C-alpha cells in the first residue's frame, strides 16, 4: 500500500518537471512552490534552514555575507537563516541542531566549503537535529566561489546568492533515504609484492585478515631486493628485506600468487569479485604436482634444470648485466623458491624435463589459468619504473658504455651482483678512479622529455653511492653534480654532512652534456660550477645518472580495473592529498607506496601500514553503508523497452514479468547510482534517489527563473 | 630527367657573392636528382639573423617576410642552402604562421610596399631535401655518383641554425631532430663514396654567429680553432658543411687564424653541394674551388 | 603565474551571461575544487549543479536550461577511460551530439552547449575551461530564446 | 642605487658600494624582455646548463646564466651595459638543453634589442644595416667574385637585388619604417666621426 502511495507521489513529481508545468508555475517565481495543491505533504510546507559559513575570512573575506544572508531570507521555502564563523565547528553544528528544533525545519542547506570535504559532517549534524541526514544539501561558496573570485566581491556575492537559491530548491524536494548496509567479505587483496605490498599484506594478515597478495613477476621483493644498501642507516637491503619475504611466504593468512596479474574487477566495497590470471610458469609447485597425483613431485628449487638449460638470456633483475637461462630464478633468495620458464626464450628442447626426472615439475605445455576470489577491500601497491633516461640524449646513456643508471650501480656494487660487488666500469672492467653522479637526471625537467616532478630519493641514494665508493675503494673521488640537495628526512641532513666529511666533492651545477673519449672511453662532463661561476670540463671514468622514476608500466591498466584515477604525470591519485593520502575515490580501494608518487623506503612502509589499517577497518566493522543513490523504477511509467538494461555498466537492471507486462527491476546492491539509466530512459520511468529529475530540474529553474530580475 | 620537384631557390649572400661554386653546384646537382631550383628574383639578405635579430627583431621579421612573399607570389616553396638563411626564412615563416599579432604587425609594414604575407608556402634546407627519401634520399644520391670520393676521410660540421633549437623545428625525417649526436649528414657523405669521420665536439658552433665574428674576431676564431684542433686530431682530408657562413669561418678563418694565432691547418672546407658536385663529376673549375681561402688540391688529388 | 592574476572586471551594464555547469562528482567537480585550493582565478558567471556522473544528464535538463533562458550550458566529466562508472561520460558525450543537432535545428548556436573533460587533478585546466566558455558565450551574446520567452 | 661616498676618485672606485639595493631592480625590464623574447626567463632556477653548453663561456667572462639572472631580478643597467652581452654566437645549445624550457638565446637577443634602443650596439652590426640599405645584401658581391661567376657561366650578379635593383627601394622603405638607417648612420658617425 505505502509503496503504491509514494509511487503516486513520484508520478506527480515527474509531472512537475514537465516543461509546461514549470514555466507556467514560474510566473509565481518560486520553483519549489510551483506545484502547490498537487504537491505531496512532505513538500507542502518545506521549511529550509540556510546556514552561511564565514570560514574565518576564507569566505567572508571575498563576499558580503550580510547581503547573502538578507537575500537568503527572501528565497521561497526558507524558514530560517543564520551565519557563523566556522559552521563545521562544534558550536557551528549546535546552531544547526538548535535551529532544526526551534523552527521545525524540513531540510538544511549549509553554504560553506565543498561537499566533497564536509558533507559527511553536516549530514551528521542534520541527523542529530532529528532530520533524515539526506535532507541536507550543500552550497559550495568556497572552493568554487570565494577562492576563485578573490578580487570580485560583487561577482562572488551574486554567485553565492544563486548557489544558495539552487541548493534550497533541491533541499525542498529532498526526501528521507536510508543507506543500505551490506556485509563485507572478510578478505583483502594487495596488488604488487614490493616492500609496500609485502608490508601491507603482512599487517592485514597479522590483523587476522585473509589476504591475497598478487605479484606479476615470479618473485616477491620488488625494487628493494635490487638495492645493495639503504640510506641513511646503511643496513643491507636484502638483510632487512628477506626476513619479511620469508614471513610473507610463511604467513597462514597470506595467499601468495606470484607471476600473476589482476584480469578483471567487479562489485563494490565489501564485495569485490576479482579475477586473477595465473600466468603459466611452466613449472608445477609441489601442491600442484600432488594435485596431479605426482607423489613427492613439484619444483623444490634444486636448479638442475637451470644448469642443463642451453638457452641464455639477459637477467632483468641484474639490469641485463648478467646472463640467465630460459628456465630461471631471478636471484638466490626468491620467494617462492620456484623456477619459471621464459616462454619467449624457451626452445622446448625438453632437456630440463629430463633432468627434473621423477619430480615431474616441468610442464612445457602449461597454460594460463584464471582464479576468481572475493575480497572486501583492495590495496594497490604497483610501484615504479625507471624513466628511460636515454631519451635525454645529451648524457649519452646507451650510447656511451660508461654512463650507467643508479640502479645499475646498485647491482654493480652489490656483493650478490653480476661482479660479486667489485665496482668496475662496463667498457673495460677496470675499477674507476673518478666517478660523477648526475642528480635530477630527467627529474625537475619541464621540456616535455623528462619529468616535471622531483623524484625525491635520488639525492639520498646518490650520497649513499658516494659513501659506498669511498668506503669500498679508497682513493676514488666521487663528484656529485646537484642543483639542490634535498635531505629532509630523519637523519638525512646528518648523512649529507657525513658524506661531505668523507670527501665527496659537491658541484652546484647541472651537467649540460657528456662526451666520450673514443679511445679511453673516459667521459668529459660539462657543467657550470654556479658557485664558482666558472664552466667546468671534468674527465671521469664513470658517470652515474640518478634517473627519474615514473609509474610502473602496468599501472594504467590496473588502475582502470579498480576505477582509480591518476594525476597528470600518471601517479595514482589519492582521495585527499593531506587528509586521505591512502584512500582513493573508489570506496574500498587504497594506495600503498610509490605507485602514488616517488617515496623512499621509510615513507613507503609508513604509507603501506596506513593503507593496511584503512583497508582493515570495513572488514573489522563487518558491514559498510552504501550511499542510497540507487535507481528505482516507476513501474506505471515503464514501457518495458529495456533500453536501460544494456546501458547499465553493472548489470544491475533487468526486465521482469509483472502483472502480465514487462517492467524493469533494479538490484540495489549492484547499482552504484551513476544514473546513466535515468539520464536515458525515454519515459522518465527511472527515479534516481537524491538526484531525481524533479530535484535537478528544480535546481535549473531556481537558477534561471528564480532570483532577482 | 625532368624535375619532379620545383622550389624557389633562395640564395642569401655568401653563397652567390663569395662561393659561387656552391650556388652552381646546388643547381646542377639538384637537377640530376629531380629537383628544379627556380631563381627567387629580387631576394635580399635573409636578413642576417645575428645582426638584425640583435638590433630589432621586428625589422628581422619584416625583411624576412618580404623574401617569403616573393616566393608566395611564385606559388612555390623555398629551398635554400645556408643555415643562417634557414633560421631567418624558415623561423620567421613559422612564427608568422603561428602568431597573428606578429603577422598583423608585419603586414602593416609590408602594406607600405604593396605586399602581404599570407603564410601559403613552406621553407626547406637543401640538405634536408637531400636526406628525405620522399624527395631524394641517400640511395638516389648514391646512384647519381659518377666519381665516388673513395678513400677520402670527410668530417661533417652541422652548424647550428638548421637543427637548433630542436623544440620548435619540424622535419619530415626525425633523424634531423637529433641535435646531440646526429649522423644523417654522415650518411649523405657515405653516399658519395667517402669515409665519414667522427671527431670531438662535432656539434660545437663555428663561432661566427650572432655578430661575434664582426664584434670580436679573435673570440670567434678561437672557437673555430678549437674545432680545427679536434678535426686535425681525427686527421681528416676535408670538412664539409651546409652553411656558407660556417664555411667562410672555417675556410677564410684558417687564414686569419694563421695570421693571429700562428697555427696552420690547411684543411679544405667544402659545402656539401660542392662535394656532391665533385662526386657527380663536376670539375673543380665548375665549382670555382680556386676561390676558397684554403686550397683543395691535396683533397682533390685523393678523389679525382 | 598564468591563471592567478585578477580577472578584468566587466564595465557597467555589460552582458552578464547566464551559464549553468553540470559536473560529475568524481572528476570535474573535484577538479573545480582543486582550482579553488590553487586559487586559480576565473570569471564568476557559471553556476554549478553536481551529479554523480555525466551519464545522469538527461537531454531534458539541457533543453530545460535553454528554454529557461540559459545563455550557455557546460557539461564536464572525466576523461574517456577514467569514468568512475566505467563509461557514463562516453554515453553522455554520445547524447550531446544529438542535443547539439537539436539546438542547430531550433536555430540556437550549438557552441552554447559545451562538453569538456577535466580530471580531478586538472585545477588549472578548469580555470582555463571556464574562462574560455564564458568568453565564447559572451561573444555569442544573450540567447535568442530569452527574447522569445518574453 | 649604489651610494657614492664622496671620496677622492681613486678611493671612490676602489671602495665602490657593491650592495644590491631594492631599487636596482626594474620589474618592467623583466616584462619587456619576456615580451620580446617570447620566452620565460623568470622561471630560471640557475642550474647552469646554459653556461655549460656555451661555446663563448670557456674563453670569456660571458655567463649566460648571469644574464638570465639579471632579467629575473630586473637589473637593467647591469645587463645592458655589460659588453659580454655581444658574445653570444646564437648557437642555441642552451635553448636546446634548458630543463626549464627557457630560450636563453632569445632572451639575449631581446636584451640586445633593448640595448640598441639606448644606442648601445657594436658598429659592425650597423655596418651590415648600411650595406643592406644600399645593396640589399649584408655581404655584397665584388669584382673578383663577378669574374668567377662569369667563368662559371653564370651572370656576373646573382638574380637577387643585385640584378633586380628595382626591389631596393622597397627594402629601404622597410628599414626607414623603423628609422633603422637613420639611427645606424647617426650612431656610426658618433663613434667614428
Topology:
The complex is a heterotetramer of chains A (709), B (304), C (150) and D (193).
Chain A: H1 2-16, H2 19-26, H3 41-44, E1 48-53, H4 65-74, E2 78-84, H5 90-103, E3 107-112, H6 115-128, E4 136-140, H7 142-146, H8 153-173, E5 180-183, E6 187-191, H9 195-206, E7 210-214, H10 237-250, E8 254-257, E9 260-268, E10 271-278, H11 286-291, H12 304-308, E11 312-314, E12 323-325, E13 327-328, E14 340-341, H13 351-356, E15 369-375, E16 377-380, E17 384-386, E18 403-405, H14 406-413, E19 434-441, H15 458-472, E20 477-482, H16 492-502, E21 505-508, E22 513-516, E23 523-529, E24 534-540, E25 542-547, E26 549-551, H17 555-562, E27 589-591, H18 601-621, E28 623-626, E29 631-633, H19 643-647, E30 653-658, E31 661-666, H20 676-680, E32 686-688, H21 693-704
Parallel strand pairs in A: 1-2, 1-3, 3-4, 6-7, 6-16, 7-8, 16-27, 18-25, 19-20, 19-25, 20-21
Antiparallel strand pairs in A: 5-28, 9-10, 10-15, 11-12, 13-14, 17-26, 22-23, 23-24, 29-32, 30-31
Chain C: E1 19-24, H1 28-37, E2 46-51, H2 59-67, E3 72-77, H3 88-105, E4 113-117, H4 123-140, H5 144-149
Parallel strand pairs in C: 1-2, 1-3, 3-4
Chain D: H1 9-14, H2 27-37, H3 49-53, H4 64-73, H5 76-80, H6 93-97, H7 104-117, H8 123-135, H9 143-151, H10 168-177, H11 180-192
Give an overview in words.
The complex is a heterotetramer of chains A (709), B (304), C (150) and D (193). Chain B folds into two domains: 5-125, Glutathione S-transferase Yfyf (Class Pi), Chain A, domain 2 (Up-down Bundle), CATH 1.20.1050.140; 141-303, Rossmann fold. Helix content of chain B is 48%, strand content 11%. Chain B has helices at 14-18, 20-32, 49-55, 57-74, 83-98, 100-111, 126-131, 137-144, 184-191, 212-215, 217-233, 244-261, 272-279, 297-303; strands at 5-10, 35-39, 78-80, 123-125, 153-157, 195-197, 238-241, 269-271. Chain B is globular, with a radius of gyration of 19 Å. Chain C has five helices and four strands. With 193 residues, chain D is mainly α. Chain D has two domains: 9-116, Orthogonal Bundle (Fumarate Reductase Iron-sulfur Protein, Chain B, domain 2); 123-192, no CATH class. In chain D, 52% of the residues lie in helices and 0% in strands. Chain D is globular. The mean pLDDT of chain D is 96. Chains in contact: A-B, A-C, A-D, B-D. Chains A and C meet through helix 2, helix 6, helix 7, helix 8 and helix 20 of A and helix 1, strand 2, helix 2 and helix 3 of C.
Amino acid at each position: 500500500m505505502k509503496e503504491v502511495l509514494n509511487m503516486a507521489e513520484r508520478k506527480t513529481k515527474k509531472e512537475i518537471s514537465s516543461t509546461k508545468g514549470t514555466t507556467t508555475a514560474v510566473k509565481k517565481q518560486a520553483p519549489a512552490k510551483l506545484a502547490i495543491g498537487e504537491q505531496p505533504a512532505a513538500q507542502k510546507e518545506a521549511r529550509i534552514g540556510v546556514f552561511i559559513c564565514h570560514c574565518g575570512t576564507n569566505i567572508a573575506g571575498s563576499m558580503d555575507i550580510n547581503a547573502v544572508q538578507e537575500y537568503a531570507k527572501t528565497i521561497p521555502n526558507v524558514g530560517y537563516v543564520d551565519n557563523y564563523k566556522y559552521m563545521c565547528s562544534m558550536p557551528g553544528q549546535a546552531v544547526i541542531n538548535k535551529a532544526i528544533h526551534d523552527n521545525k525545519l524540513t531540510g538544511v542547506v549549509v553554504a560553506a566549503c565543498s561537499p566533497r570535504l564536509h558533507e559527511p559532517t553536516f549530514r551528521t549534524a542534520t541527523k542529530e537535529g532529528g532530520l533524515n541526514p539526506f535532507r541536507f544539501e550543500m552550497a559550495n561558496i568556497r572552493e568554487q566561489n570565494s577562492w576563485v573570485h578573490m578580487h570580485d566581491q560583487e561577482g562572488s556575492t551574486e554567485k553565492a546568492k544563486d548557489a544558495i537559491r539552487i541548493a534550497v530548491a533541491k533541499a525542498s524536494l529532498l526526501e528521507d533515504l536510508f543507506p543500505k548496509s551490506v556485509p563485507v567479505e572478510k578478505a583483502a587483496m594487495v596488488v604488487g609484492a614490493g616492500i609496500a605490498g609485502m608490508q601491507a599484506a603482512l599487517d592485514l594478515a597479522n590483523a587476522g585478515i585473509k589476504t591475497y597478495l598478487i605479484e606479476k613477476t615470479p618473485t616477491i621483493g620488488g625494487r628493494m631486493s635490487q638495492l645493495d644498501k639503504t640510506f641513511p642507516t646503511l643496513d643491507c637491503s636484502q638483510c632487512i628485506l628477506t626476513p619479511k619475504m620469508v614471513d610473507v611466504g610463511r604467513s597462514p593468512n597470506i595467499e601468495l600468487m606470484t607471476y600473476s596479474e589482476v584480469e578483471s574487477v567487479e562489485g563494490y566495497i565489501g564485495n569485490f569479485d576479482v579475477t586473477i590470471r595465473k600466468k603459466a610458469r611452466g613449472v608445477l609447485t609441489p601442491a600442484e604436482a600432488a594435485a596431479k597425483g605426482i607423489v613427492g613431485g613439484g619444483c623444490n628449487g634444486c636448479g638442475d634444470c637451470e644448469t642443463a638449460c642451453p638457452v641464455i638470456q639477459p637477467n632483468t633483475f641484474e639490469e641485463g648485466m648478467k646472463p640467465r637461462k630460459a628456465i630461471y630464478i631471478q636471484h638466490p633468495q626468491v620467494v617462492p623458491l620456484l623456477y619459471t620458464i621464459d616462454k619467449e626464450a624457451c626452445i622446448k628442447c625438453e632437456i630440463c624435463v629430463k633432468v627434473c626426472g621423477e619430480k615431474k615439475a616441468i610442464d612445457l605445455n602449461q597454460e594460463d589459468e584464471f582464479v576468481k576470489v572475493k575480497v572486501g577491500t583492495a590495496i594497490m601497491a604497483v610501484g615504479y619504473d625507471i624513466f628511460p633516461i636515454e631519451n635525454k640524449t645529451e648524457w649519452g646513456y646507451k650510447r656511451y658504455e660508461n654512463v650507467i643508471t643508479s640502479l645499475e650501480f646498485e647491482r654493480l656494487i652489490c656483493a650478490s651482483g653480476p661482479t660479486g660487488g667489485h665496482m668496475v666500469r662496463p667498457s673495460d672492467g677496470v675499477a674507476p678512479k673518478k666517478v660523477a653522479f648526475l642528480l635530477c637526471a630527467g627529474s625537475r625537467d619541464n621540456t616535455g622529455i623528462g619529468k616535471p616532478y622531483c623524484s625525491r630519493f635520488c639525492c639520498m641514494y646518490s650520497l649513499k653511492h658516494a659513501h659506498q665508493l669511498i668506503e669500498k675503494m679508497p682513493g676514488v673521488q666521487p663528484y656529485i653534480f646537484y642543483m639542490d640537495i634535498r635531505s629532509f628526512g630523519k637523519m638525512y641532513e646528518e648523512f649529507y654532512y657525513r658524506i661531505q666529511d668523507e670527501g665527496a666533492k659537491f658541484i652546484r651545477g647541472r651537467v649540460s652534456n657528456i662526451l666520450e673519449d673514443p679511445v679511453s672511453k673516459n667521459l668529459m662532463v660539462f657543467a657550470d660550477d654556479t658557485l664558482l661561476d666558472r664552466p667546468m670540463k671534468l674527465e671521469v671514468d664513470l658517470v652515474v645518472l640518478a634517473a627519474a622514476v615514473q609509474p610502473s608500466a602496468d599501472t594504467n591498466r590496473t588502475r582502470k580495473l579498480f576505477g582509480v584515477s591518476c594525476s597528470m604525470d600518471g601517479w595514482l591519485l589519492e582521495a585527499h592529498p593531506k587528509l586521505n593520502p591512502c584512500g582513493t575515490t573508489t570506496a574500498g580501494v587504497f594506495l600503498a607506496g610509490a605507485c602514488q608518487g616517488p617515496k623512499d623506503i621509510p615513507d613507503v612502509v609508513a604509507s603501506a601500514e596506513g593503507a593496511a589499517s584503512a583497508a582493515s577497518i570495513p572488514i573489522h566493522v563487518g558491514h559498510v553503508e552504501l550511499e542510497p543513490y540507487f535507481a528505482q523504477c516507476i513501474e506505471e511509467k515503464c514501457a518495458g523497452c529495456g533500453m536501460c538494461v544494456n546501458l547499465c555498466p553493472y548489470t544491475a537492471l533487468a526486465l521482469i514479468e509483472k502483472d502480465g507486462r514487462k517492467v524493469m527491476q533494479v538490484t540495489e546492491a549492484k547499482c552504484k547510482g551513476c544514473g546513466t539509466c535515468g539520464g536515458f530512459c525515454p519515459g522518465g520511468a527511472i527515479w534516481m534517489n537524491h538526484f531525481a529529475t524533479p530535484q535537478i530540474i528544480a535546481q535549473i529553474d531556481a537558477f534561471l527563473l528564480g532570483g532577482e530580475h | 630527367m625532368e624535375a619532379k620537384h620545383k622550389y624557389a631557390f633562395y640564395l642569401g649572400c655568401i653563397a652567390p657573392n663569395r662561393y659561387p661554386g656552391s650556388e652552381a653546384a646546388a643547381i646542377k646537382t639538384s637537377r640530376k636528382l629531380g629537383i628544379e631550383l627556380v631563381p627567387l628574383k629580387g631576394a635580399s639578405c635573409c636578413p642576417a639573423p645575428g645582426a638584425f635579430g640583435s638590433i630589432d627583431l621586428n625589422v628581422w621579421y619584416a625583411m624576412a617576410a618580404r623574401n617569403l612573399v616573393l616566393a608566395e607570389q611564385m606559388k612555390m616553396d623555398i629551398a635554400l642552402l645556408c643555415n643562417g638563411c634557414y633560421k631567418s626564412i624558415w623561423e620567421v615563416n613559422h612564427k608568422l604562421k603561428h602568431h597573428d599579432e606578429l603577422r598583423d604587425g608585419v603586414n602593416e609594414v609590408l602594406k607600405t610596399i604593396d605586399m602581404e604575407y599570407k603564410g601559403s608556402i613552406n621553407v626547406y634546407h637543401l640538405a634536408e631535401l637531400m636526406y628525405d627519401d620522399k624527395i631524394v634520399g641517400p640511395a638516389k644520391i648514391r646512384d647519381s655518383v659518377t666519381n665516388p670520393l673513395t678513400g677520402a676521410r670527410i668530417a661533417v660540421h652541422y652548424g647550428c641554425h638548421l637543427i637548433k633549437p630542436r623544440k620548435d623545428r619540424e622535419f619530415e625525417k626525425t633523424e634531423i631532430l637529433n641535435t646531440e649526436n646526429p649522423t644523417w649528414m654522415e650518411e649523405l657523405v657515405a653516399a658519395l663514396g667517402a669515409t665519414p669521420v667522427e671527431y670531438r665536439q662535432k656539434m660545437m658552433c663555428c663561432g661566427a654567429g650572432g655578430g661575434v665574428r664582426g664584434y670580436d674576431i679573435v673570440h670567434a676564431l678561437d672557437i673555430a680553432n678549437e674545432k680545427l684542433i679536434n678535426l686535425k686530431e681525427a686527421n681528416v682530408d676535408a670538412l664539409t658543411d651546409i652553411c656558407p657562413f660556417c664555411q667562410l669561418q672555417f675556410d677564410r678563418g684558417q687564414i686569419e687564424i694563421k695570421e693571429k694565432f700562428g697555427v696552420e691547418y690547411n684543411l679544405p672546407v667544402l659545402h656539401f653541394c660542392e662535394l656532391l658536385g665533385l662526386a657527380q663529376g663536376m670539375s673543380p673549375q665548375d665549382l670555382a674551388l680556386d676561390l676558397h681561402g684554403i686550397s683543395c688540391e691535396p683533397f682533390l688529388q685523393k678523389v679525382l | 603565474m598564468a591563471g592567478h592574476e585578477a580577472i578584468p572586471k566587466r564595465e557597467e551594464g555589460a552582458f552578464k551571461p547566464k551559464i549553468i555547469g553540470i559536473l560529475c562528482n568524481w572528476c570535474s567537480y573535484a577538479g573545480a575544487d582543486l582550482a579553488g585550493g590553487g586559487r586559480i582565478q576565473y570569471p564568476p558567471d557559471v553556476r554549478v549543479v553536481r551529479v554523480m556522473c555525466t551519464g545522469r544528464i538527461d537531454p531534458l535538463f539541457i533543453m530545460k536550461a535553454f528554454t529557461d533562458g540559459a545563455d550557455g550550458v557546460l557539461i564536464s566529466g572525466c576523461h574517456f577511460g577514467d569514468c568512475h562508472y566505467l563509461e557514463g561520460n562516453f554515453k553522455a558525450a554520445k547524447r550531446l551530439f544529438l542535443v547539439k543537432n537539436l539546438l542547430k535545428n531550433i536555430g540556437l548556436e550549438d557552441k552554447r552547449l559545451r562538453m569538456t573533460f577535466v580530471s580531478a587533478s586538472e585545477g588549472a585546466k578548469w580555470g582555463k575551461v571556464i574562462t574560455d566558455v564564458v568568453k565564447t558565450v559572451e561573444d555569442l551574446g544573450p540567447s535568442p530564446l530569452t527574447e522569445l520567452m518574453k | 642605487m649604489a651610494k657614492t661616498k664622496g671620496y677622492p676618485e681613486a678611493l671612490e672606485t676602489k671602495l665602490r658600494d657593491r650592495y644590491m639595493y631594492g631599487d636596482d631592480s626594474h620589474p618592467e625590464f623583466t616584462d619587456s624582455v619576456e615580451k620580446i623574447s617570447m620566452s620565460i626567463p623568470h622561471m630560471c632556477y640557475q642550474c647552469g646548463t646554459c653556461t655549460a653548453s656555451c661555446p663563448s663561456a670557456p674563453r670569456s667572462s660571458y655567463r649566460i646564466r648571469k644574464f638570465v639572472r639579471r632579467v629575473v631580478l630586473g637589473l637593467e643597467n647591469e645587463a645592458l651595459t655589460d659588453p659580454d652581452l655581444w658574445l653570444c654566437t646564437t648557437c642555441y645549445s642552451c635553448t636546446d638543453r634548458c630543463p626549464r624550457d627557457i630560450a636563453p638565446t632569445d632572451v639575449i637577443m631581446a636584451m640586445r634589442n633593448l640595448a640598441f634602443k639606448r644606442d648601445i650596439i657594436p658598429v659592425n652590426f650597423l655596418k651590415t644595416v648600411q650595406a643592406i640599405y644600399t645593396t640589399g645584401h649584408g655581404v655584397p658581391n665584388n669584382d673578383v667574385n663577378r669574374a668567377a661567376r662569369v667563368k662559371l657561366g653564370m651572370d656576373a650578379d646573382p638574380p637577387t637585388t643585385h640584378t633586380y635593383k628595382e626591389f631596393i627601394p622597397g627594402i629601404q622603405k622597410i628599414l626607414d619604417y623603423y628609422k633603422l638607417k637613420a639611427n645606424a648612420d647617426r650612431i656610426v658617425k658618433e663613434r667614428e666621426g
